[in-house]
Amino acid sequence: MSDPRYPIGRYEPMPYSEELKKEWLGNIRQLPTELEYAIQNLDAEQLQSPYREGGWSIHQLVHHVADSHMNAYVRFKLALTEDEVTVKPYEEQLWADLADVKALPVNISITLLHALHARLYTSIRDLRTDQWNRTLNYPGKPAPVTIWFLLGMYSWHGKHHTAHILSYRKANHI
Q: pTM higher than 0.70 for the full model?
């Protein structure tokens, strides 16, 4: 049986290719819509249910994706504009327990993701090869990592969490 924490497997860095770039950029562009469809017609009780045993609620998960991808946007921009940059990690679990996550409906984060991903996609879609190879220091990752690595990681991240929700729906016949 596969690990329910990783329904699409773990992120595996891949060497640069034009084909993969198109795929990953497409994933970035489509994530908000795919996530929105994944939660479509879930009621309040379902949104407050954990997407897997020991996992966050679907509500927390949607807000987490927005939090994570806001950080991603800043990381891409820093890597594109600064040399020798080290990005700051954040405590995902603590963010998932903050008042905004508890109080605000998931549509706030879905709306944010639509705007954020439009900005992110537009800012990176036409990068030159040398820009994809720009690096940043990312605590907890083999340093330094490239912007290309970030594209793959955040492409995977969106698919990963959308798959969590789709797995929940399948397991609960929704």
A: yes
Q: Using DSSP, state whether 50 is helix, strand or coil.
A: strand
List per-residue pLDDT tens for the chain, 174 residues long: 478 899 999 999 999 999 999 999 999 999 999 999 999 999 999 999 999 999 999 999 999 999 999 999 999 999 999 999 999 999 999 999 999 999 999 999 999 999 999 999 999 999 999 999 999 998 887 779 999 999 999 999 999 999 999 999 999 999
The Cβ of residue 172 has, within 10 Å, a number of other Cβ atoms equal to 10
Where is 70: in which H helix or E strand?
helix 58-81
Where do the structural domains in the chain lie, given as residue ranges? 24-171
Query: Which sign does the torsion angle of CA 104, 108, 110, 112 carry?
Result: negative
Distance CA 125, CA 117 (A): 11
d(C-alpha 62, C-alpha 71), whole Å? 15
| Residue 13 CA: distances (Å) to CA of 126, 138, 155 | 21, 15, 11
Angle at 82 between CA 109 and CA 155, to 5 degrees: 40
Distance CA 144, CA 136 (A): 5
In CATH, 24-171 is 1.20.120.450: yes
Is 47 buried (19+), middle (13-18) or exposed (0-12) by CB count in 10 A? middle
